[in-house]
Amino acid sequence: MAEAGRRRARGGGGAARRAERTAIHIETAKFIERKIPNLEILNEEALSIIEENAETVLAEVGVNFVECPEALELWREAGAEIDGERVRIPRGLCRELIKTAPSSYTQHARNPEKSVEIGGNSLVLAPVYGPPFVRDADGGRRYATMDDFNKFVKLGYMSKYLHHSGGTVCEPTDVAVNKRHLDMLHAHMTLSDKPYMGSVTEPSRAADSVEMSKILFGEEFVDQNAVMTSLININSPLTFDPIMVGALDVYAKAGQGCIISPFIVGGAMAPVSVAGTLTQVLAEVLAGIAYSQLVRKGAPVIFGCFVTSIDMNSGAPTFGTPEASQILYGAGQLARRYGLPFRSGGGLCASKLPDAQAAYETAHTHNAALLGGVNFMLHSCGWLEGGLVSSFEKFVMDADQLGVLHRLAEGIDMSENGQAMDAIREVGPGGHYLGCEHTQANFKTAFWKTDLLDYKPFETWHEEGARDTVTLAKARVEKLLNDYQQPAMDPAIREALDEYVARKKAAEPDAFV
Amino acid sequence: MAEAGRRRARGGGGAARRAERTAIHIETAKFIERKIPNLEILNEEALSIIEENAETVLAEVGVNFVECPEALELWREAGAEIDGERVRIPRGLCRELIKTAPSSYTQHARNPEKSVEIGGNSLVLAPVYGPPFVRDADGGRRYATMDDFNKFVKLGYMSKYLHHSGGTVCEPTDVAVNKRHLDMLHAHMTLSDKPYMGSVTEPSRAADSVEMSKILFGEEFVDQNAVMTSLININSPLTFDPIMVGALDVYAKAGQGCIISPFIVGGAMAPVSVAGTLTQVLAEVLAGIAYSQLVRKGAPVIFGCFVTSIDMNSGAPTFGTPEASQILYGAGQLARRYGLPFRSGGGLCASKLPDAQAAYETAHTHNAALLGGVNFMLHSCGWLEGGLVSSFEKFVMDADQLGVLHRLAEGIDMSENGQAMDAIREVGPGGHYLGCEHTQANFKTAFWKTDLLDYKPFETWHEEGARDTVTLAKARVEKLLNDYQQPAMDPAIREALDEYVARKKAAEPDAFV
């Protein structure tokens, strides 16, 4: 961190200093440190059964590492039984191997104030990841572009309760598949100063992510610190593919953080039951995290869990359902049992519109993620239509809701001031508290305040146009984008990033698949 | 129960039998019996502090019983210090007096299958209570009428996950204030067969509620069983008014259930801090429940808590906020500490429309109520605009969501079938579970199923008109009201109820205040 700090302080000259002087201070809340307990829905017996069953799955069924000869060799050396691409892992081996994985780690941001701690009682909030489409109130649903991507990064930068800039906030489909990671990383690095995620769609793109991070943070700093947390999906059931394993190799060797995450639509990629799904999740994550430690002991990794259920009528995935919440709560308990940071989804929903369905589903997932002990909440804002769409309005709607989670996580203030006995004595039966001393001293910070929702009296609301949440959100998107000011950056670093992207883009022809 | 059963079986003749033969079977889920733990956000030290502070409030500040000479006399005899209307209650006295209050009780329905248990690990879901306005998608917001009231009772009867018909599902403003309770009770008794609430707006109206219940259930049965749970609000801070105390007297003497509930907008009727509010809530509830036991030892009562926060900018109440959730969680712990059934709000929201704001707020409250150990959830569906409006669309939207709570409360099935090890073995790495034996055997009941929300693929949804949640809800309201069939009732009972209402209405002139 110190080096990154020095680089910023040293470099830049007049332009950077002018930019810093005129910059609006954008407030970003510190990552959440929970002061409330987690909800534990499984008892010790249930946890033991799932653990035992997962060991059985690993030992008897095994996992496939497809087209990963080096990975198979690492597993063989570690004592697993290799049969073609199948890796059967003796009972207890994964548990032994994962002991070197840290229980928490710091992911550094270029702005040191925005670095985050991932693990323990922390909760880091990151935006939607992956949708090929965007939706806004005026334009409806359409393929996402780099222009959309930049806007989401700016909205993320402007969102107080979002700690992380994320990764593929939408797929910029107007940029070649083999080059868009360069533009995406460049956007996160230059349009925001929050921590970000690296590319995982090719090992070479993961390598680009590391290289560009070295330009931003300095080579030595990146060698010694985690500056990215990237998303390695397991091809459930029980399959690791060469793309993801290759990206994991790059990041683990570089000491960069990875989420090892089953990607499961329950009933399709895992059993239709919650306990069965948890068993498979645990087996997959244990194999993935153990593998990461074979690549490099101590590589920072997160116990990931992305599980939803299926609508058995249409075959479509559902989100924000009770089974998804149960799996989240259970997986959180398993992650804590192994002393690993935990990731699960945030504002997940299946609705096509940012309407009541979307909000019910999102709030269920938000609550479960907070109370289930999630440390890294991907998709915490902006996710729509089962992850096919990044919604501008829903981004700011959900981002506002993240303030609710911050406040809830603070727990109850039991100080003398919190107890408010003087106020109760002062007001007495039949009085009112609006004017009392305690209220005057505390009202500014007593309650969570929305930046979006409408609490005005009916008449005022009606006179102002009877706006619904989406209409209010549309106005807020416009305001935030208008108010946006780019965070200052050392021009030399900016130039080097520009040059890297230009050089890499020129080095190969565009690919669109 | 037996008597009520016999009366139904005996009475009625041909018309009733024909009605029973042609009746559609309306499915009603059994009240929830939680198999998951509650979330405990306060530790023992915090609980002790609040308890100690509440005793201090009762002993030093006291509560007012306004214009209630008989209540003051009961308190005096019990050992309290009376000073005008102020009742100061020595430390420990309330704790002693409330020992006779049952930790749970059965509220009987005229259909014995729909009787509910209130207390312990149960959760009984009741609809919105109290709004003077209604809203629907076509007509917008307007004063509620008896026709609206009847429709809400019918919707409640048709809602699978709603266990209780409620009370004032909206205020029928087209009926005289001194007579509308008769029509409301008549509607609950004849249009539904679920349990209901009695009138509390005058002691005489509470007496009418008891009388009409005796017609419905038989006098002896009502003398020996609780057939109503009614809402006694405390006039916070620390004030009991003669109307509510009078109604409580009637119900307690009749052995009927009452919710003793502070009604608090935090910052106005209680301190602006959560711990201070919890202290006041506990003092008020202890006084109210202790009083109920002075009226009749063993009278069934519920620890009520209706608390929200205030928007310090507009002074308007807010709902679904983190402070409201904290208070709900804390109050639930206090109720359990005293071994009392617990009531808190359900689908509370401040939004003027059944939009995303409404759904976020409602889902927060639903989750907190489930995880906070609520036994009786009033307002679990249909509540809008801070309780000023009963919304038809939101009623069916929320009622659908109550299915989520049912499923979540079931916990995780850890049976052999739930563990699904055979399925994992059968499918193996890279396979899929859609066709496997375990999925085929379980898919029909594996996942919660919505009756409302849309999980169809985008293209199908788009072809069907790209309907949002409110549009889907509007269609569902129409369908349920079309499908509605009145539950069978002994014509002799029906006639007696009609006669009672007509006689009481004729006995005094209409009053409109």
Automatic annotation (TrEMBL), chains A, B:
Which InterPro entries does the annotation name?
A: MttB-like_sf, MTTB_MeTrfase
Q: Which family does it belong to?
A: Belongs to the trimethylamine methyltransferase family.
Lineage of this protein's species?
Bacteria, Pseudomonadati, Pseudomonadota, Alphaproteobacteria, Rhodobacterales
**Mind listing the GO molecular function terms for this protein?**
methyltransferase activity
Tell me one Pfam family matched here.
Answer: MTTB
Protein name from the UniProt record:
Methyltransferase
Q: Per its UniProt record, what Gene3D superfamilies does this chain match?
A: Trimethylamine methyltransferase-like
Q: Which UniProt keywords apply?
A: Methyltransferase, Transferase
Q: What class of enzyme is it?
A: transferase
Q: Does the record bear Methyltransferase in its keywords? A: yes
Q: Which GO terms describe its biological process?
A: methanogenesis; methylation
E.C. numbers: 2.1.1.-
